[in-house]
Structure formats: structure tokens, C-alpha cells
Description:
- The structure holds two protein chains of two kinds.
- Chain A is an alpha+beta fold.
- Chain A contains 13 helices and nine strands.
- In chain A, α4 runs antiparallel to α5, α4 packs antiparallel against α10 and α6 (172-198) runs antiparallel to α10.
- By secondary structure, chain B is α/β, with parallel strands linked by helices.
Amino acid sequence: MQTTATSAFPTRNTVIPFGPQHPVLPEPLQLRLVLEDERVVEALPAIGYCHRGLEKIAEKKDFIQNVYLVERICGICSFMHSLTYCQGIEELMKVDVPSRAKHLRVVWAELHRMHSHLLFLGLVSDAFGFENLFMQLWRVREHILEIMEKTAGARIMLSVCSIGGVRRDLDDGQMAEVLRVLDRVEHELEEILPTLMNDYSVRQRLCGVGLLSPDKAHDLGAVGPTARASGIPMDHRQTGYAAYGDLGGVTPVTETAGDCYARIMIRVRELHQSAEFVRKAIQKIPAGPIAVPVKGNPDGEVLVRMEQPRGELIFYIKGNGTRNLERFRARTPTFANLPALLHMLPGCQLADVPVIILSIDPCISCTER
Amino acid sequence: MLTNVQEITPDRLVGEVALIKGQGCRFVTVTCTDLGEAHDLIYHFDDQGELRHLRLKLPHGATLPSLSGVWFAAVIIENEIQDLFGITVTGMAIDYKGRFLLAESSPKAPFNKLGGIAVDVRVRPPAATEAAAPGGAH
């Protein structure tokens, strides 16, 4: 403990390590918090607890094997990583992916977004002490995981995206089952979400906490729901990748308050938006092949980006005409949101730190790769 | 394919980035690749949804000026590059001295193509390292 002021009422600063093992943190992240009484004055991140060097491994593997490697960057939104990687390689090799495969990619991508958002909402409910809400949200999430298992053969690591298309098709019965599950999920959420949105205690814990202004969000490079909660209408699905361009356009979900409550409301509203995209994709899916053969090796460089549940995901891929890539790099949304998090914490109370950290939906596996 | 790329030299980096920031762009990230004789650094920016890039070649052993004075968001990726490629970045707002991701026993500059060719930024006088380093995981 050190004294920082020499006035008649000296203020004592305390430095405490928050994490890497902490009840609210699903993954190891440490923040060194400088406290003045119970108020946070400064926060410094310390990571490196689960760095796996996946970018380097990607240079050693065959570029087709990398589809499975990049899926393992994240244990929550794994499909998004394989989709982004495949889109990058397809752009380099000028592969024209069949329209049916693009629609199927949207179906699985949006199911992934829904399960990721439900996971987040459950975790953040647990962080502010509402354990029953946490259990109810994760119970609903199970419906999404089950339908992913029925359609892709796995709950999280789907491994259905391949360079040139997808590896599995959906028949009419499976599509009808997906639609039934979406109806059930939305019906159950109608009963649960009002508690999250309107409960007095929840609002007391979240409203006005962890503020991030639009200017600061832009200046600090915030992405995804963190940026949209501060009023920045940024959603890369607007570029129309996969089949989003054929589904009637994407209007980013935004809030203006820039606090923890706004960041949570973005996810709540995006749950319904994702369900709508799945319905549209199934409604408009054309008949035809689900993949095309790919010949040759990637050459040249490309920067591909897409909208992952936590925000903008970027892959830089550089090929050299061989089976191995010259360089593969991933910039994940949590990595981009760390500077914004460091800005949100000073001035808050120590008791609010867990909620503020979770409000950006941090994924440390993604961040460290 | 990568388009809208502007080649620059390290001494012009901070000035060019300040201009780009003044035009309302968003800092996206930096990509570093070891080319053997030099590092290839690409700075990515988002200009109203369009990407633009600054590209520079940095010879092995040369230092790189930090952007964190212009754009604080750059400090995380600059520390990562310092760790993984052994590039000394000067003037960072938070300098982990090569201990952002790596531990003392970790391989040095593990993302370089050839082992041992990069400068080891962690070999510094103990007193200076301890005084300046704000922390790190290890």
C-alpha cells in the first residue's frame, strides 16, 4: 500500500490483482487494478496464460488442415473462425462457392451467434448475482446446441465449413426442425428476458456502469456489440458476405447509452435478429450443390473480415503457392476491445469490475490464440 | 486481395498515421511477417467501412516507433509484435518489455522464420527492466 497524496487527508492507493483465476472469469485474464479506497483509478491487463501460438502452427500445416486448426481458436464461436478462413482462401483461389452452401453457412453462423449470446447473457447474469437467470438462459441455449448437433454432428466444433462450400446438407425435415427449435427458443425467451431487461436490481447493477462514449469507442477501436452499444452502427454482415446480401440487408442493432446495460441489450435484440436470419436463409435456400472442388494452392495475400458474436474478426492470409501458408494472422474482437475496457474501468467501484469486464464478452482464448 | 496499400518508411510512420487519424479513420490492427532479411509490417485502418493500409519494411535489428502516442489502441498489438517478433518498439504508452505474452523461459521471438536472427528485446539491464516494466503475466 502506498500513500499518493500529502494533504491533510491522504488517499491510499492499493494495487490488487484481479484474476487470472476469479469466479466470474471463464478464462484466465489478469487485470492489475489500482484502487483508491473502493474506486478504481487505473487498470493494466496481463495476459499470456493460454497463448498457444496457433498462428505459427498454421504456417506448418497444410492450408486445408488449417480449417480445423482455426476452429480451435475459440471454443464458443468456432464456426465463425472456419467460415472466415474459408472465405479468405476462397478469395485468394478465386473459388465460386455455391449459393446453397452460402445459405447453409448463414444458418450455422447465426445459430452460433445465438448460442454465444445466450452463453454471454447467462454468464453476466451469474456475475451480477442472478444465478437462477443464468440457469434459465443456459437451459434455452441447450436447444440451440442440440439442433447444431442434429444438423452438423457436433454441439460446438461443427467442422462443416470447408474450402469451396460446406460438408453437410440439410434436408427438408432438418430445416423444419430448425424452424421449430427457433420458435421454441423465442417463446421461452419471451418469458425469461423481461426479467433481465426490467428487473429493478438488474438495472441498478448495469445502468450507467462502465460508460463508453461514441467518440471514445471509435478512438479506441472498439468493435461489435461494444461499439454498437455506444451508438456506432458497425456490423460487417452489411458487406453481404456468405448469403447475407441475398437476405434483405442487415440493419445493425444499436443502443446509445454506452453502459453495461446497453451492451447486454444489444445481445438480447440480436438474438431475435439472428433467428430471423436463420428463417430467411432457410426460406430462400436454393437447390444445388453444397461444395465445389478446389485445385491448386493459395498465392497472394488477403485480409478478410466478418462479424463474429463479439465483433469484427479479421484474418490476414498470405500464400506462397505451396501447401503451406507464408503467414496467417488473426485479430479477434476481444483483442480490439481491450483498450476500450481499460478506459471503462477507471472511476468505477471495485464491485462493478466483474460486470464491466463481462459486458464486453471477453474471449481470452481468441485474444491469445 | 490486398488493395489500397501505401508504402512508407519507418521515419514517416507516426506522421502518416496522425494524418489518417485526422481523416476520421479507425485503427484496426498491425500485421507483422518475417521475410528473413526484414520484417514486413502492415498497418490496417478502416475508412468508413473501406480498408486502407500502410506498409513498411523494417530491417532486422532496427527499432520501430510506437503509434500509441497517436492511437492508444495500438499499444496492445505493438507489445504482441515486440514479444513474438523481437522487434523493439520505442515510446509505447505501456511497455511490457517483451513479457506481454511470453515468460522468461519462452522461446525468443518465436514467430520469426529463423531462430536467433532477431534482436532479443528482453536482454536488458535488470535495474532498468524492473523499474520500467508495469507488469506482465509472469
